[in-house]
Amino acid sequence: MTGTPERVTTSVPDLVAAIGPRVRTSPFFPATVRAGVTAVSTYNHMWLPMSYGDPEREYERLTTGVSMWDVAAQRHTEVSGPDADAVVELVTAVDTSDTDRCRAIYAPMCDHDGRLINDPVLFHWHDGTWRFSISDSDVRLWLQAIIRAHEFRAQVAELDTATLAIQGPKAGDVIDALGFGWFDELDQFEQRPTPMRLDDGPAVEVVVSKSGWSTQGGCEIFLDDATRAVDLWNTVSAAGEPFDIGPGAPNATERIENVLLSYGTDTGYDADPIELGLTDHLDLDRPDFIGQAALRRIRDDGPKRRLRGVVIDGDDIGVLQQPVPFTIGGDRVGLLRAATHSPRFESNIGLALLDASCTPGDVGSVELDDGQRTARLVELPFADSLED
What we know:
Blueprint: H1 29-35, E1 39-43, E2 46-51, H2 55-64, E3 67-70, E4 76-80, H3 84-91, E5 103-106, E6 109-110, E7 116-118, E8 121-126, E9 129-133, H4 139-150, E10 155-159, E11 162-167, H5 171-177, E12 191-197, E13 203-209, E14 218-223, H6 229-240, E15 246-248, H7 252-257, H8 292-301, E16 305-312, E17 324-328, E18 331-342, E19 347-355, E20 363-368, E21 371-378, H9 382-386
Parallel strand pairs: 3-15
Antiparallel strand pairs: 1-2, 3-11, 4-9, 4-10, 5-8, 6-7, 8-9, 11-14, 12-13, 13-14, 16-19, 16-21, 17-18, 17-20, 18-19, 20-21
């Protein structure tokens, strides 16, 4: 038999999703509809575009060209006021005291039992003002409760910031075409406010950040005037046309290949950052913060689980829709939480949250739609295990 093996996917019916006040649309929504969005997910109570109908082309564009993403669902939750610095020190598991204005830090947040409740990028916007660019959980409610309980002099607001990401190896060409010739001077997670003329209309102030949820390079543009979001989309699309820019979305395959953690997907809602491999991002010996005592105990005793890389045999699989049990010797040892076929590694790969006793080299099995597959544990990152 010749040809490409058929991918194994989880069957789902054709659905029509109702849009209402509980599930918001992005400020870019009209532009993404015109661009041909075909799949969405809910993220922070907002539709997040997931595909424009050609996942293989979207992966190729991200890894070899340039793509533009509506990531307004990556909401900005702002803390401001005289005690804002103290708030962010208390609610994050990192030392933010050295994060200067117009800089950012990856800032895992935990509850009092050390469970990860969000893993935002935290931007030091101005003196006394911080913005959490959040993953998918209700950080605003947590912050409001903590501020009230500790009687901090601070306010919390969820901003309707329109965030557009430009990602891919050719992102720099588009960024230059937009007039941001200084972009290469920025460090990772550094931002710069700048005026930007949008779609032949009046200029507005945006903030350009060297960031984005891929490993391919690029920027995120933050626009607080959401009424101009479609103009921003059109401006970036026009600037990128000579470089074959196209619409895309946070890419499941690229992020699994490069082990970019997806809160909720990889973690569930009961995982701690140590078992997820985030120890190097934590500052456990600084002054008190929420979850510190629990995390120190986990560090000293060792985590009960570990996030492991998995290689799955057989025909190419599609993106795993739901976690499935991972078994070794007939015993369930955890869950395969995410999986996909990797063009880069020419293998089916995944991320599994398993008992700590499971180590690279162990062989188990997972049950997919087409039956049982053999699955082998490998060291993370995958590049260390699967590339020659």
